[in-house]
Specification:
The chain is globular and about 50 Å long. About 40% of the residues lie in helices and about 10% in strands. The chain has a domain at about 10-30 and about 60-115. It is an alpha+beta fold.
Length: about 130
Amino acid sequence: MGFSRHKTIYQGEPSDEVDKAWEDLYNSFGLSQIPKAQARLLPNKTLPILGDEENYAVGLAVFHQLHCLNSLRKGLNPEYYRDPVTGAISNIAQEDWPEHASHCVDNIRQSLMCASDISVAMGGGG
């Protein structure tokens, strides 16, 4: 599962093909909107839609988690993904990268702990 010659399309060196596979996991699923009164009831923070402050943006957590994982993947290869002008990686400003990466690690940690897969897996060593 994902080692040596058994790699998936989501692994390996950066390429347009790998990037497209990752983006296809979540980019076709857009955000939805809910009224401000409903947004106040949510346990997680959301933001108003620009130009329509009476409605707030929401989406399924799985797509946020995939976005975070993809951002971290890109951060592992900054020489390929860093914008040469702005220094941004995955549309995240260079100065915001450490905080955003930390958010992504914690977001994925929470997901793994809340929906743990308890099946036996082969370890990667270490």
